[in-house]
């Protein structure tokens, strides 16, 4: 499931996922209620999109003095 699906899922829906019990499901619900956590996720999504849009990822793989 995507972050969005986890965010909108109910406690019961999360418990139905294999290997997620009531305690983990409750933790997921609480995680997505925190505005700070949502802000971090949005920032990461933005940065990932930016990296791929600028096509800088292949440059990170090239050998440079900074990545020996």
From TrEMBL:
Keywords: DNA damage, DNA repair. GO terms for biological process: DNA repair. The keyword DNA damage applies. InterPro entries: DisA/LigA_HHH, RuvA_2-like. Residues 7-41 form the DisA/LigA helix-hairpin-helix motif domain. This is DisA/LigA helix-hairpin-helix motif domain-containing protein.
């Amino acid at each position: 499931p995507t972050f969005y699906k986890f965010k909108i899922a109910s406690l019961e829906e999360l418990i139905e996922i294999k290997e997620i019990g009531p305690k983990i499901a409750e933790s997921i619900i609480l995680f997505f209620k925190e505005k700070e956590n949502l802000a971090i996720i949005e920032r990461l999504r933005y940065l990932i999109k930016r990296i791929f849009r600028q096509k800088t990822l292949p440059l990170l793989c090239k050998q440079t003095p900074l990545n020996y």
